[in-house]
Amino acid sequence: MRGFLRVMVIGALGCGLLALGCKKQEATPAEPAPAEPAPAEEVSNVPPLNENNIVSIAIRSEDHTTLVAAIKAADYVTSVAASGPLTVFAPTNEAFAKLPEGTVENLVKPENVATLRQILQYHVTTSALEKSWLKDGQTLGMANGKKTTVHVDGDVIKINDATIIASIPASNGIVYVVDTVLLPPEE
After folding, report:
1. Pick the CATH number of 54-131+165-178 from 3.10.180.10, 1.10.10.10, 2.30.180.10, 3.40.50.720
2. Is the CB of residue 67 less than 8 Å from the CB of residue 181?
3. Percent of the chain clearing pLDDT 90 (strictly above)
4. For 132-152, how does the pLDDT look when each residue is reduced to its tens digit (9 = 90+)?
5. What are the tens digits of pLDDT across the range 1-35?
C-alpha cells in the first residue's frame, strides 16, 4: 500500500510540474519576428572536397578563378575531384585573358556547355604524369580523345604551345600550371 501511495504522490507531483510548465510556456510572449529576413547563404555546386585534390588546389589558387568558374559551369567539379589519377594542365587567369575578348563569357553560357566540356577535357590526361616522364615529341591522349604534343627544350616543357610554369602534386594526380589555354584541334 505504501508503494502504491508513493507512486500516486510522485505521479501527482509530475502532473503538477507538467501543468506548471505548460502554463509558463503559454504566459511567455513570443519572440518578435525579425524585421528583415536573414540573407540566404550562397549555394555552391562544390561538394565537400579532400583539401589536397586537384579541384581544392584550384579553388585555393587566386590565379585559377577563371578555370574554377569554367569547371563549375561545365558541372565537372565532382568528376575532377573524385577521379584519379589525373594530370591536369591548369591555365592561369592570364592564360584565359589571352583568348579573344568575350570567349570565356560565351563558353560558360548553358547553351555552350558541350564546347566548354571539350576544351576542359583537352586539359586532362587519365594518369598522373611525372615531369621527368615527359619527352620531346611525345604525344599525350587527352580526356576528350584528342592528342597534345610535348615539347622539351632544356628545362622548358610545353604542351602544344602552353608552357608549364609550375607543378603541384595532388591527392588524385598532378596539376601543371600552364600559361596558355589548350584548344582542341578543329576537325
Report:
1. 2.30.180.10
2. no
3. 48
4. 999 999 999 999 999 999 999
5. 444 333 333 333 333 333 334 444 444 444 444 44
Q: What single-letter amino acid sits at 11?
A: G
Q: Is 28 helix (H, G, I), strand (E, B) or coil?
A: coil
Long-range CB contacts (within 8 A, 24+) of 178-181: 178/89, 178/90, 178/91, 178/92, 178/95, 179/91, 179/92, 179/94, 179/95, 180/91, 180/95, 180/98, 181/91, 181/95, 181/96, 181/98, 181/99, 181/119
29 cis-preceded (ω within 30 degrees of 0): no
pTM: 0.72
Query: What pLDDT was estimated at residue 52?
Result: 85
